[in-house]
Design the sequence.
C-alpha cells in the first residue's frame, strides 16, 4: 500500500466520523425531542474530541508528510496534490489551538449565548456586554494563536475565506458602498412605491410544502440525493454528496420565508450534490469557502429565484395552489412584490440590495473591536451611527440593533463578511456564465436552469475544495473578486423596477 | 481519579459513539434519501469498526480489571458491580469473534439478503438455499467460537437472552404447545365467528397519526423525551433515556398496523425511558434482553392495548375521528374485532394467540439445522409439516412459508424465540403486578395505565441491564419463567370471547 493510500484510508475514516457528527447536529435541530439535549451535547462533544485527537495526532501529521513526499511533483490541480494542500493547512491550523483554549472558548460561548438570549429579550446591552468583552478577548487571542502578517483580522477571516485578506475585502466593500449608497438613496427618492401586501396573506402550510418541493426540483435540487426538513432556523447539511439536505420554516401568513429560504438552501445543497464523486469521503468534497457557498445559495435565491422569467413561468402554478390569496394578482405584480427594497433594521429580513449594508457594518465594527479601536461599551452607539450612514435609519432599541444576531456570542469574527462576499461572487459568476452560454438567460426567461446548473457543475461544484476561493474566482471569471458585476446587476434590476 | 472513574470515562465515550452509530442507523430508515445508501454504509462501518477496536483493546480490558479489583466486595446489585459484570461479559464475547469472522459474516449477510429478496419475490427456495447453507455454517462456527456447555444453540441464544438455556426454552415451549394447541382447536370448533371487517375500511392517514399520538400519550409514552417517525418496517431506537424513539407505518385502509404497532413500539421505548438516570451513558441504560424488551412491547400492545377496558374508554375518541368507518359500531364490537384469532401463514400478521406457534416452529427448525439434523434442502418440507402440526394450515408457497422472514439471511439463530418469550414474560409480570396493586386493573378498566407504569418503572425499567432476564423474572415474580400465566390469561380472554 502506498503512503497516499494509507493516508486516504485515515482521511476517509475521519470524514465518516465528521459526517456522523454532522448528523448528530442536524438531527438535534430537526428531530430531537427537547429532553434529549444534555445527552446529545455529550455525544457531540465525545465525537468532536475524538476527531480532534485523531486529526491533530503526530501519527496523522506523519501520514500527510509521507504521502506529500511520495507525491512530490504531482500537478497542482490534481486531486492528490489538492488533498495534501488542504490536509496540511487544516492540520497546521488545528494544532495551533491548544486544548485549553478550545475548552475555554467553548465554555465562554455557552454562557455568552445564554446571556445574549436574555439581553436580546430585555433589549438590555448591559447584560451581554461583559460576555462580548470576553468574546472579543478570545478573538484577539485566537488571532495571535493562528498568526498573521498584515493585520489581526486576517487570521480570523482566513478560517472562513481561505487566503482572502482583510485589505482586499475592505477595498471591495468600500467600492461597493460608494455606489450602493447613492443607488439606495435614488430608490428612496423614486416616486415608484411597491406594494408587497400580497405576500402577507394566509398561505396554507401544507400547500407551501408542496410548492417548495416543486420549485426546489425546478431549479435542479435532486431529492433522490436530498431531504427537506422543518426547523426554526433553516440551514443546509451535507452527509455526503448523495445526501445533501435542506431545511425550511413555514409561516402560515407570509410566503417568502419558505419560498426563498428553500431556494437559498437548495443553492447550498446543490453545490454539495455537485462535488465530483471521486472526491467523496475526503474533506475536498465540500464547498470551498463560506463566501463561495453563499454565492450558490444567493444565486438561486435572488438572481434566479427573484427574476422576472422565473416567476412568469412558475406563478401560474403558485396561483393555482393559492387561488384566494393570488387569484386577483399577476405574475408581474408578484415579481415586483418579492423585489421591494427598503432600509430595515434586521439583517435576516433585509432585501437583496440592502442586505449588503448590514454586512459592511458588522465587518467594520468587528475590526474596530478586534483592534481595540472600539470599546465594547461603545458598540450600541457605533452601531446606530453606522446604520444612519449606510441605511439612513436608526434602530429603536438594541434588540433591533447590535443585539439582533447570535454570532457574537462565540469567537467567530470574520464570518459575517462572507455573506456579502457571496452576493458579489454570485453576480460575478453569473455574468461569466451568461456570457459563456447564451442558453442560460434564454432558459431562465422560461423559468428553467438546466444550462446554468450545468455551467455551475462544470466550473464550480465539481472542484469542491481543490481551489481556494481566490483561485477559483480567477480561474472561472478571469479576475479577482470585485463589486462591479453586482453593481451592474443591481443597477439594471432596481433601476428598471424603480424607474431610476 | 479512581480506576472506576477512569473506566467510567471510557465507557461513556464508547456509549456516546454507540449512540451516534444508532442515529446513523435510525436516520437511514427514517430520513435518508435512497441515493445516500453507499456512503451511509461506509459511515456505519467506520464507526462500528472504531467501536469494536476500542471495546476489544487490551487497554480497555485492563481498565475493566483494574476497576474490578478496586471494587471487589461491592454489593451484587450495586450499579458498580453490575456494570463490571456486564462489561466483562461483553468484552469476553467481543474478543471471541476474530475480525476475519466478523468481516466474512457481514459480507455473506449482505449477499444472502439480496438472494433472499429475489427468492421471496419469485417464491423460489432454490435461489436462497446456498446462502442459507452458508448462514447455517456461520451459525455453527459462531457457536464454536463463543463456546457452550450443553448444546450448540445455547451459545447463540445467550447473546439475546443472557443466561437462558435452550433446554429451559424447550421445556417451556413444550408445556405451552401442549395447552395452546387444544385451545386453538377449541376456538376453531367454536360456533362463535368474529367479524373484523370494520378494521378494513378507509382510515385517513393524518387522523391515524393524530390518534396514534393520543394513545401513545394515554399509555404513558413521553413525547418530550421521544419522537414518532414513519418507516416501512417499524422499530424503536434509544439515543438516550431522554430520546427514546418510536416509528410506525400507516395503511390508508387498515387501522391495526398503526394502532397496535404504535402501542408495541411505545412499550419498547417506555422501557428505555424508564431506565434510571444514574445509569445514563453506560451499557446498563438499556432493556436487559430481547425477551424482556418484548415483554414490555407485548404488554402495551396486547394485554393493555387489546383489553376491553382500554377500548371502552378510548373508542369514543376514535369513533369521533372516523365517523364514517366507525359511526355504526360499538366499543364492544371493536374490542371483539381486534381480538379475532385464526391460524394464518405470516408471522408478522399473526394474532396474539397464534403468534406463539410461528415462533415455536422457527425455534425447533433452527436447532435442527444448527445440529445438522435437518438439511437446508429439506427446510421447505419440514416447515410445512410443522405448520400443519401447530396451526393446522399449509402455506400455498414458500414465500408464504420458509421464505417469509429476512432473519435467516444473517447468522442470528437464537433471536426468534425471544419474541414468544416476551409474551410469556409479559403475562407473568402482569399477573404479579395486578396481584401487588389492585389499582392497576381498576385503572385499566377505565383505559388508564398510571399504576401499571409505576409498577413497571419500579420493578423492571429502572434496573436497565443490571440483572439477567433470569435474575429479573425471579426477583420480580418469585419464580422462573413459565407458560402458566400466559395460558391463564389466554384461556380466560379467548374462552370468554369464543364462549368455550
Sequence:
Amino acid at each position: 500500500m502506498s503512503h497516499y493510500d494509507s493516508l486516504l484510508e485515515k482521511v476517509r475514516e475521519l470524514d465518516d466520523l465528521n459526517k456522523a457528527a454532522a448528523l448528530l447536529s442536524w438531527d438535534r435541530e430537526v428531530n430531537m425531542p427537547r429532553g434529549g439535549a444534555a445527552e446529545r451535547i455529550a455525544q457531540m462533544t465525545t465525537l468532536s474530541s475524538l476527531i480532534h485527537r485523531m486529526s491533530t495526532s503526530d501519527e496523522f501529521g506523519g501520514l500527510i508528510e509521507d504521502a506529500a513526499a511520495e507525491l512530490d511533483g504531482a500537478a497542482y490541480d490534481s486531486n492528490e496534490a489538492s488533498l495534501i494542500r488542504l490536509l496540511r493547512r487544516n492540520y497546521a491550523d488545528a494544532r495551533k489551538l491548544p486544548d485549553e483554549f478550545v475548552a475555554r472558548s467553548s465554555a465562554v460561548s455557552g454562557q455568552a449565548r445564554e446571556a445574549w438570549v436574555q439581553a436580546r429579550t430585555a433589549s438590555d446591552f448591559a447584560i451581554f456586554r461583559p460576555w462580548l468583552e470576553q468574546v472579543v478577548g478570545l478573538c484577539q487571542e485566537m488571532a495571535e494563536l493562528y498568526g498573521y502578517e498584515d493585520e489581526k483580522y486576517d487570521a480570523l477571516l482566513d478560517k472562513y475565506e481561505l487566503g482572502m485578506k482583510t485589505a482586499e475585502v475592505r477595498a471591495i466593500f468600500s467600492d461597493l458602498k460608494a455606489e450602493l449608497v447613492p443607488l439606495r438613496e435614488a430608490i428612496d427618492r423614486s416616486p415608484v412605491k411597491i406594494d408587497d401586501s400580497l405576500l402577507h396573506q394566509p398561505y396554507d402550510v401544507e400547500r407551501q410544502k408542496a410548492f417548495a418541493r416543486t420549485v426546489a426540483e425546478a431549479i435542479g435540487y435532486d431529492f433522490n440525493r436530498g431531504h427537506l426538513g422543518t426547523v426554526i432556523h433553516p440551514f443546509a447539511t451535507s452527509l455526503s454528496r448523495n445526501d445533501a439536505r435542506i431545511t425550511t420554516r413555514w409561516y402560515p401568513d407570509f410566503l417568502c420565508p419558505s419560498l426563498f429560504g428553500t431556494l437559498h438552501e437548495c443553492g447550498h445543497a446543490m453545490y454539495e450534490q455537485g462535488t465530483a464523486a471521486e472526491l467523496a469521503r475526503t474533506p475536498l468534497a465540500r464547498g470551498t469557502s463560506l463566501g463561495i457557498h453563499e454565492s450558490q445559495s444567493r444565486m438561486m435565491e435572488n438572481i434566479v429565484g427573484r427574476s422576472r422569467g422565473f416567476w412568469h413561468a412558475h406563478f401560474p402554478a403558485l396561483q393555482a395552489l393559492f387561488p384566494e390569496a393570488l387569484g386577483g394578482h399577476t405574475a408581474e405584480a408578484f415579481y415586483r412584490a418579492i423585489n421591494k427594497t427598503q432600509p430595515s433594521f434586521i439583517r435576516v429580513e433585509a432585501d437583496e440590495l440592502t442586505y449588503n449594508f448590514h454586512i459592511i457594518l458588522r465587518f467594520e465594527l468587528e475590526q474596530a473591536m478586534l483592534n481595540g479601536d472600539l470599546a465594547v461599551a461603545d458598540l450600541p452607539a457605533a452601531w446606530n451611527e453606522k446604520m444612519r450612514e449606510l441605511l439612513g435609519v436608526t434602530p429603536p432599541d438594541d434588540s433591533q440593533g447590535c443585539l439582533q444576531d447570535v454570532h457574537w456570542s462565540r469567537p467567530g469574527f470574520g464570518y459575517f463578511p462572507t455573506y456579502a462576499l457571496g452576493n458579489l461572487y454570485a453576480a460575478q459568476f453569473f455574468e461569466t456564465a451568461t456570457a459563456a452560454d447564451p442558453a442560460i438567460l434564454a432558459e431562465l426567461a422560461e423559468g428553467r436552469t438546466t444550462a446554468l446548473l450545468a455551467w455551475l457543475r462544470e466550473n464550480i461544484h465539481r472542484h469542491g475544495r481543490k481551489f481556494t476561493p481566490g483561485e477559483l474566482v480567477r480561474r472561472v471569471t478571469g479576475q479577482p473578486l470585485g463589486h462591479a458585476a453586482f453593481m451592474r446587476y443591481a443597477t439594471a434590476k432596481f433601476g428598471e423596477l424603480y424607474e431610476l
